[in-house]
């Protein structure tokens, strides 16, 4: 049984930008897409070790929504956490956190 | 040593051609049993004599040095400041004035020429110079400065000789503040290269530039002032002209004394006799450059000398190359006037037809000489507008392809020949590069820009006049070869930045959604989103943090601070002109102390504070803004800072108020978004303490105003900025800089700094000058407007952020835990300040505490 944490209202999020939430002790990067979907991945950038992924630029690669690390510009799928462009380094995928919107509230669960 | 190996090679003379030879040798035979010693009597590294006059425009002698990495080759030894006095061909040695004896297996003479001066009474007076070396130029400069001070008035200068070098020297004397007269023995200027009509047109132009021209006159005597320095010149016409500084530019003679004294064959008119292989009458001795006499002639240009250097480098390794002089053209440079010619200037070929267009209003004279059937190009003369010279000269002796008059027609005539010139045509005669080699650089060596082709072939790197043609050939080759250099910015936009800029401006688009709907696909990425943000910002489409723009920004622009490696940010307030009051310094100190920020003076004369958490940024900035400071945009692709020296307000040497100008420029361009960050420097005198020529825009004070240089860069690929305009007053300076920045912003590629943008600009700095300073394309007003709109719309980003609760939301550490912050941050102490701790180091999460930690090594 998934335990959801309400982190904020959807209206608190800007389209195509992220915020950081604390979910059961995890730092989570939560993003609102242009179509109002909400997706969440780990906040820690595996390449720099800094907690910064919520501050990356949101975009698309083909049909897949992506985020780019603001630190060294690796690119991941926000949907699967797969590293799409490791920038010449070994690929490290991200942990994906289940997220959904319920009645205007953003809910995130620990995986 | 194998019999065919050149063994110990000694070159006498360390000039332009000797450099070329060393460079060729080095690149030709990676391996090989040879060693090279180059001995020159000038005290400097071999330098670019062709651009000697640049010394007058503020360039320092070191910047003239020819590619110095050649001398780092372990097989090559360069000896400077030593004259070779004797050549002993039996012993195979040369001996220098200091007694150094250098044995050789192979000797190459590259001694160049000396400036000949007629035996006129008084040529030995102080204040009389020739014009050949850096030492000459330095002496002229020093004399002009001290003599003007002694006399307490502007100087009058006289140049004897109205050829290309004389006219260059005259412009240089004028630049030193002297009223200048040119005295020429023949009945017209540049009499070797120009016909009567061309010479007359040139006289009109030179006179209009303020130089007095006296033709059919010779200097017969120089008279001295009471203190013994030159003061007057008597002319063969009976006139006497005042002369405080005199430069003789009356021709050059080959330096062939060594060869003469050692019994080598010498040409009738001087010079060491060589054949097609450039070997002299002694098989172990070769001669190249201006000192070599081929078929009775020595040529005073660098291109044939370079060709000879290539020939010898090939021959020494058993190669087949031989010397065939290519027909040379001449183009006047450095005189502020255009004049050029090539081929059969006087129409002497039997049956030759001349088509001439003299336009007294536009002050141009242009002539094309063709064969009797009007098909084959035989020559051309261009005065006042030499744009046809670069495109027609390579076609000498070939079909012209159109009626000659069509080329001369003012508008809508035949297009100048372009990318389709035949492979064997020499495009760049200075570096001897054919159209075929340019094409090969693209098709075989993978070059995709003019800049890369220049670096690969050296074409266009000497006098630069072939760059427009070069550009056409490169573009055409890329197209023909179907080499699609993808111009797409990324998967979302198929066009480069400059095109997108124009589309956004023309379409009046104001948001990313509008831009991507009209011209792209998908939802963008880290490449295109910041580009669109920067374009929208440059076009004044609102604050970078308006919601629609916010999603486009890199984190730096999003939170108005520069991301550091641990996820914290730096804080850099603007310090215009490097001026800061004690009160502001105190506030900075208090903020840094309270938040435990690591503090240092940045390279751009500001104070940087590092280690601010995202949630601390608003509190920090509120303190700074309240104390009257504003964002320094250290995070943006925009103006960083204007560096200046202290200038005339305090400095004993300053001639202009560089701090005042620095502040003015910084306040004007602050916040102006561009394809990349850009820096500006302002120096208050020619000592250049602000290192302005290493900046994107460098402003250097002169007695009369400001010189502005553009396209400089420090960092990874250092490059000196090039002179764009001289002696501007304050307002004109600002206008020229406005236009430069606006044009760059509109047309540069993504992340292209000004240095490569200027280097790749079609037509180079000269064209840029025409467009920006002379407004030849009529786009000046539009460029001015871009900056004017920016200045009107400027607001401090931090102040407007602090006033907007919506914007302040993005500075929370956790959306669901106000007051908490990133628990993973950890700092240790170093030299009394905090820095991010590495794993295993003694650390504390609060930098205020961390900086006091005892670190036991
Ligand atoms: C102001 C100016 C503008 C010019 N503009 C152009 C131009 O636009 N286009 C163009 O094609 N050409 C131009 N030239 C000419 C061009 O500079 C020369 O053609 C070129 O430098 C010739 O190269 P070189 O190596 O043969 O001779 P140099 O460059 O003169 O080098 C010869 C060197 O050998 C040294 N030397 C001589 N004898 C001895 C010895 N016994 N021992 C040791 N060292 C010795 C000399 O001091 C000198 O340093 C210009 C020249 C001047 C002065």
Could you write a compact summary of the structure shown?
The complex is a heterodimer of chains A (111) and B (857). Chain A is mainly beta and 111 residues long.
Layout of strands and helices, then pairs:
The complex is a heterodimer of chains A (111) and B (857).
Chain A: E1 4-9, E2 17-23, E3 26-32, E4 38-42, E5 57-61, E6 64-68, E7 75-77, E8 83-85, E9 96-97, E10 99-102, E11 105-109
Antiparallel strand pairs in A: 1-11, 2-3, 3-4, 4-9, 5-6, 6-7, 7-8, 10-11
Chain B: E1 7-12, H1 16-28, E2 34-39, E3 76-79, E4 84-88, E5 93-96, E6 101-103, E7 106-109, E8 113-115, E9 128-130, H2 134-151, E10 156-160, H3 164-175, E11 179-183, H4 196-208, E12 212-214, E13 219-224, E14 230-235, E15 240-242, E16 245-248, E17 252-254, H5 257-261, E18 272-274, E19 285-287, E20 292-294, H6 302-315, E21 329-331, E22 339-343, E23 353-359, E24 364-370, E25 377-383, H7 387-392, H8 404-408, E26 426-428, E27 433-434, H9 435-443, H10 450-457, H11 467-480, H12 497-507, H13 512-519, H14 528-538, H15 547-550, H16 555-559, E28 562-563, E29 569-571, H17 582-595, E30 598-601, E31 607-612, H18 617-626, E32 639-644, H19 658-669, E33 678-683, E34 697-702, E35 705-710, E36 722-728, H20 730-747, H21 754-760, H22 764-772, H23 780-793, H24 797-802, H25 805-808, E37 827-830, E38 833-836, H26 847-850
Parallel strand pairs in B: 1-2, 1-7, 2-3, 7-19, 9-16, 10-11, 10-16, 11-12, 18-20, 32-33, 33-34
Antiparallel strand pairs in B: 4-5, 5-6, 8-17, 13-14, 14-15, 21-22, 22-25, 23-24, 24-25, 26-27, 28-29, 29-31, 30-31, 34-35, 35-36, 37-38
Helix pairs in contact in B: 1-6, 9-11, 12-14, 20-23
Flavin-adenine dinucleotide binds at residues 12-18, 39-42, 49-50, 52-53, 83-84, 110-113, 131-132, 165, 168, 255, 258, 289-290, 300-303, 305, 333, 463 of chain B.
* Overall average pLDDT of chain B: 90
User: What is the helical fraction of chain B, as a range of percent?
Assistant: 25-40%
Total beta-strand segments of chain A: 11
The mean pLDDT of chain A is 93
Strand order of the largest sheet of chain B: 3-2-1-7-19
Classified by CATH, the class of chain A is Mainly Beta
Number of helices of chain B: 26
Largest sheet of chain B: 5 strands, parallel
Derived structural class of chain B: alpha/beta
The total beta strand count of chain B reads 38
List each distinct ligand once.
Answer: flavin-adenine dinucleotide
The CA-CA distance between the termini of chain B, in Å, is 59 Å
Shape of chain B: globular
């Amino acid at each position: 049984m998934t335990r959801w944490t309400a982190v904020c209202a959807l209206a608190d999020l800007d389209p195509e930008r992220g915020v950081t939430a604390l979910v059961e002790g995890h730092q989570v990067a939560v993003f609102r897409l242009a179509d109002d979907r909400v997706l969440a991945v780990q906040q820690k950038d595996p390449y720099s070790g800094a907690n910064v992924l919520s501050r990356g630029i949101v975009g698309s690669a083909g049909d897949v929504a992506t985020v780019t690390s603001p630190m060294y510009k690796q690119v991941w799928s926000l949907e699967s956490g797969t590293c799409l462009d490791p920038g010449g380094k070994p690929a490290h995928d991200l942990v994906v956190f289940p997220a959904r919107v319920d009645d205007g509230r953003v809910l995130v669960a620990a995986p | 040593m194998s019999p065919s190996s050149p063994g110990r090679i000694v070159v006498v003379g360390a000039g332009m051609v000797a450099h070329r030879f060393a460079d060729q040798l080095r690149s030709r035979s990676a391996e090989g049993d040879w060693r090279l010693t180059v001995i020159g009597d000038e005290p400097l590294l071999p330098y670019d004599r062709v651009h000697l006059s640049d010394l007058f425009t503020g360039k320092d002698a070191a910047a003239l040095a020819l590619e110095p990495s050649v001398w780092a080759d372990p097989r090559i030894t360069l000896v400077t400041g030593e004259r070779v006095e004797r050549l002993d061909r039996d012993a195979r040695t040369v001996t220098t004035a200091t007694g150094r004896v250098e044995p050789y297996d192979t000797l190459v003479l590259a001694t160049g020429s000396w400036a000949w001066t007629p035996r006129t009474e008084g040529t030995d007076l102080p204040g009389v110079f020739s014009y050949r070396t850096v030492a000459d130029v330095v002496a002229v400069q020093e004399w002009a400065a001290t003599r003007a001070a002694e006399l307490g008035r502007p100087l009058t200068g006289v140049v004897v000789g109205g050829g290309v070098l004389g006219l260059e020297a005259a412009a240089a004397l004028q630049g030193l503040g002297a009223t200048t007269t040119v005295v020429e023995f023949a009945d017209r200027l540049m009499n070797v290269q120009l016909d009567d009509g061309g010479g007359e047109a040139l006289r009109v132009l030179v006179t209009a530039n303020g130089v007095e021209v006296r033709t059919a006159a010779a200097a017969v005597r120089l008279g001295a002032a009471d203190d013994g320095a030159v003061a007057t010149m008597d002319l063969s016409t009976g006139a006497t002209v005042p002369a405080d500084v005199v430069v003789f530019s009356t021709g050059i003679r080959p330096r062939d004394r060594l060869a003469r004294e050692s019994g080598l064959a010498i040409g009738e008119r001087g010079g060491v006799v060589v054949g097609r292989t450039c070997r002299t009458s002694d098989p172990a001795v070769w001669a190249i450059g201006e000192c070599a006499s081929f078929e009775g002639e020595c040529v005073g240009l660098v291109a044939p000398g370079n060709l000879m250097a290539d020939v010898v480098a090939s021959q020494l390794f058993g190669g087949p190359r031989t010397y065939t002089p290519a027909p040379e053209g001449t183009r006047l440079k450095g005189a502020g006037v255009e004049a050029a010619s090539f081929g059969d200037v006087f129409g002497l070929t039997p049956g030759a037809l001349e088509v001439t267009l003299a336009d007294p209003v536009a002050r141009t004279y242009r002539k094309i000489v063709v064969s009797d059937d009007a098909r084959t190009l035989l020559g051309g003369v261009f005065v006042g507008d030499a744009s046809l010279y670069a495109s027609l000269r390579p076609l000498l002796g070939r079909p012209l392809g159109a009626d000659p008059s069509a080329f001369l027609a003012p508008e809508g005539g035949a297009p100048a020949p372009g990318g389709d010139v035949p492979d064997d045509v020499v495009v760049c005669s200075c570096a001897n590069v054919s159209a075929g080699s340019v094409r090969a650089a693209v098709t075989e060596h993978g070059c995709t820009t003019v800049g890369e082709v220049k670096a690969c072939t050296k074409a266009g790197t000497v006098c630069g006049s072939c760059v427009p043609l070069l550009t056409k050939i490169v573009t055409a080759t890329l197209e023909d070869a179907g080499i699609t250099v993808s111009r797409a910015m990324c998967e979302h936009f198929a066009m480069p930045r400059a095109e997108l800029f124009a589309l956004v401006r023309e379409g009046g688009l104001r948001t990313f959604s509008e831009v991507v709907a009209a011209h792209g696909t998908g939802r963008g990425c880290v490449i295109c989103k910041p580009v669109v943000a920067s374009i929208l910002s440059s076009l004044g489409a609102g604050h970078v943090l308006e919601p629609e723009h916010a999603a486009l920004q890199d984190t730096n622009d999003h939170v108005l601070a520069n991301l550091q490696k641990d996820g914290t940010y730096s804080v850099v307030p603007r310090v215009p002109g490097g001026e800061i009051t004690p009160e502001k310094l105190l506030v900075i100190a208090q903020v840094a102390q309270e938040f435990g920020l690591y503090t240092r003076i940045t390279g751009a004369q500001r104070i940087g504070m590092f280690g601010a958490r995202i949630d601390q940024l608003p509190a920090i900035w509120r303190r700074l803004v309240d104390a009257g400071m504003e964002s320094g945009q250290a995070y943006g692709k925009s103006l960083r800072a204007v560096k200046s020296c202290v200038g005339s307000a305090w400095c004993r040497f300053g001639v202009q108020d560089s701090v005042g100008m620095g502040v003015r420029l910084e306040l004007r361009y602050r916040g102006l978004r561009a394809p990349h960050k850009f820096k500006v420097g302002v120096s208050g005198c020619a000592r250049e303490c602000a290192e302005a020529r290493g900046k994107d825009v460098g402003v250097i004070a002169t007695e009369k105003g400001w010189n502005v240089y553009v396209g400089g860069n420090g960092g990874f690929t250092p490059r000196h900025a090039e002179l764009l305009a001289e002696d501007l007053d304050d307002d004109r300076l600002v206008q020229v800089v406005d236009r430069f920045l606006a044009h760059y912003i509109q047309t540069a590629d993504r992340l292209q700094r000004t240095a490569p943008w200027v280097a790749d600009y079609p037509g180079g700095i000269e064209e840029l000058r025409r467009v920006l300073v002379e407004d030849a394309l009529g786009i000046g007003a539009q460029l001015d407007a871009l900056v004017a709109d920016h200045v009107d719309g400027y607001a401090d980003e931090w102040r407007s952020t602090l006033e907007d609760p919506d914007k302040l939301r993005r500075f929370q550490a956790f959306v669901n835990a106000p007051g908490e912050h990133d628990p993973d941050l950890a700092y240790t102490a170093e030299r009394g300040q905090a820095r991010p701790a590495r794993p295993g180091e003694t650390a504390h999460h609060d930098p205020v505490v961390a900086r006091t930690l005892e670190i036991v090594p």
